[in-house]
Amino acid sequence: MQAGLEGNDLAKFVAAKRAAMMVESGMAIGLGTGSTAYWLVKCLGERVRHEGLAIKCAVTSDRTKRQAADENLLVFDLDDLGQLDLVIDGADEIDPQFNLIKGAGGALLQEKIVASTAERMVVIADPSKIVDRLGAFKLPVEIVPFGMGSTRNKIADLLKHVDVRSTMIEMRMAGDALFRTDCGNHIVDLSLGYIANPRQLAVALNQIPGVIESGLFISLCDTVIIGYPDGHTDLREHGGPAESFFDESDR
Predict the structure, then answer these.
(1) Which listed residue (24, 71, 93, 111) is catalytic?
(2) Hey, which end of the chain has fewer CB within 10 Å, N or C?
(3) Which CATH architecture has domain 139-214?
């Protein structure tokens, strides 16, 4: 499976493979969405076929559900599984406190529900996702269609009172139409530059009527696995020694 991969594709694959090796038979696991999670599903499928790995899976998007079925993974409704042992997902940004921005694929609500149901969340990524401070990547916010103009205005008012560099807001589009999530909602993307206090912003956004969830994942990630283009990986536990990925010795 690894043959022919290089650069960031190889980095994503080796991170996904290391995470897949953490999964044990009998586990109920959550499968994320995105380019790195794609490799995770492939690696798990290979373990099911060649090792007889027996797991139950909950998925975070229709796209992941289709891929999991192709890999002969057993997919169940989240409510049928109860608490998950492990969720493995990617991220768009990861800061030194293991806070995340997620949601580039539009599955942030389901990703957050699944992550909050798991005993442990493992994030897999390539080095480009490691940042000193969240906010360079657009922050997605899922909103209900009803009154979305009013919701957008309330978000704009909020951004005037928090410490961010930029306050640009745009509706996510799919061609000429508004983007629709798997839950039938819309996404507002916030170009903030940096976010001084991610927790404060996450709480404030969730207090706005019409906002379903933001792509700020706070105090959910337990483990980060970074894959590198040369094929090696680096695993860090939240709260563990030498937590930062920013030391020169790690590069």
Answers:
(1) 111
(2) C
(3) 2-Layer Sandwich (3.30)
Measure Cα distances from 63 to 108, 202, 235 in Å: 13, 26, 27
Residue type, 72: N
CA dihedral 249, 90, 217, 189 (to 10 degrees): 110
pLDDT in tens, 145-198: 999 999 999 999 999 999 999 999 999 999 999 999 999 999 999 999 999 999
pTM, entire model? 0.93
Strands 139-143 and 168-171: unpaired
DSSP 17-86: HHHHTT--TT-EEEE--SHHHHHHHHHHHHHHHHH----EEEESSHHHHHHHHHTT-EE--HHHH-SBSE
User: Annotated catalytic, 111?
Assistant: yes
